[in-house]
Amino acid sequence: MKITPHGAAGGEVTGSAYLVDTGRAKILVDCGFFQGGKDADAKNRVAIDGGGSGLDAVLLTHGHLDHTGRLPLLAEGGFRGSVHATPATIEMAGLILNDAVKLQAQDLERHNRKRARAGEPPLAPLYTAEHTERILSQMQPVPYKELVSVAPGIQARFVEAGHMLGSTSIQLLIDEGNGESRSVVFSGDLGPQGAPILRDSEPLRQAQAVFLESTYGDHDHRPFGDTVREFIEILRQATSEGGKVLVPSFAVGRAQVLTMLLAWAFRERILKPFPIFLDSPMAIQAWAIYRRHPELFDEEMNRFLREGSVEQDLATLNATATAEESKKINDVPGPCLIIAGAGMCTGGRILHHFRQNLWKPETHVLIVGYQARESLGRRLIEGEKKVTIHGETVAVKARVHTLGGFSAHAGQRDLLAWFGTLAPCRPRVVLTHGEDEPRRVLAGEIARRHQLDAVLPGLRETVVV
User: Fold this and answer.
1) Domains in the chain and their CATH numbers?
2) What percent of the chain has pLDDT over 70?
3) Is the pTM of this model over 0.85?
């Protein structure tokens, strides 16, 4: 059996896609976008396995763009099989992919205007809404925990990963044709234990090979409670100064956690209510999907919903769906808090708010999620004093805060605990979805604790199981 990572390898975090070739069948586990780097667009245009026509099936761990963004390319390339995912992941993937194709069209139109002025030919879109609709029509829901036949000789089990609504780890059981089967596990993105809203990840106990994410393999996040206290103190300071708080946030997951924390702080009178702008059409729609899946909430979240009215708690929340509503936020004086995408500051409405407010010393920026190398968010974290937004140089006088405890990714301790239930099987360990240093550190810890040598593959470097 050959497994080849076509993304999230070689020190790359985004672009998750694993081509599994058993000899009898070919499947993909995830098919995500590369994000953040200057060469991301070029990488996204590289066809996987001839475009997808030879694939039997695709399995999705969850709906985030860096795990689903290249799916429409498979439809364009002739893939006609099923895409297997949990019901919530199918809903989230539809939301995220439809948003992505619109953003791509807008960005391409702007980019091609520049090319036209420079006398250069226009670029073609990566894919179209038609391709997106086609791949979404091929999605098939799977239940949690049950074995499902997905391709000749391949069964799959999807279990809770605790990363986002509908997220899973996937265990493949491959029939070797001699009465024996081989188990391969893909962790997907694992969430931290005890994170709000969602249930914790579920461990697996049998595997001959494990493909483990390593996004934060070199350290643990700050405890969630400490992060919440810092979040509250920053808001107290910003509101007392009359400044705006800008939060670049993933529309699915992080935006919901932040709004629920604000609901809690207002309900408990920890903070005096102030204007909040959820300036993300996708985050607004994602909330509706969340509310349709309370079976995926943890008990604490369900109790919070039972004991009060979130709508009353968030009476000062303004959901700004249209571009015109978003522009009007510029005229709103502080204090207020603005949650907008994109989470890695690679596009979206947050860039417009940055251009309007980064140069003001009373502004606060809260970085609450992973920022890819070379992304604007990473440059802000690293302390750049001037940045370019939509061709305009903007001074950075705002205070930038990094709140790693809000991450939806497991830290080193939780990654090792999750892997610990599989370690007694002595599996082949393959570390992906992490930059070089986190992968190396995590590999060292696995070797020290379990005497297992991890493989750190490069992009499109085949691992033979």
Assistant:
1) 2-219+408-464 (3.60.15.10), 224-406 (3.40.50.10890)
2) 100
3) yes
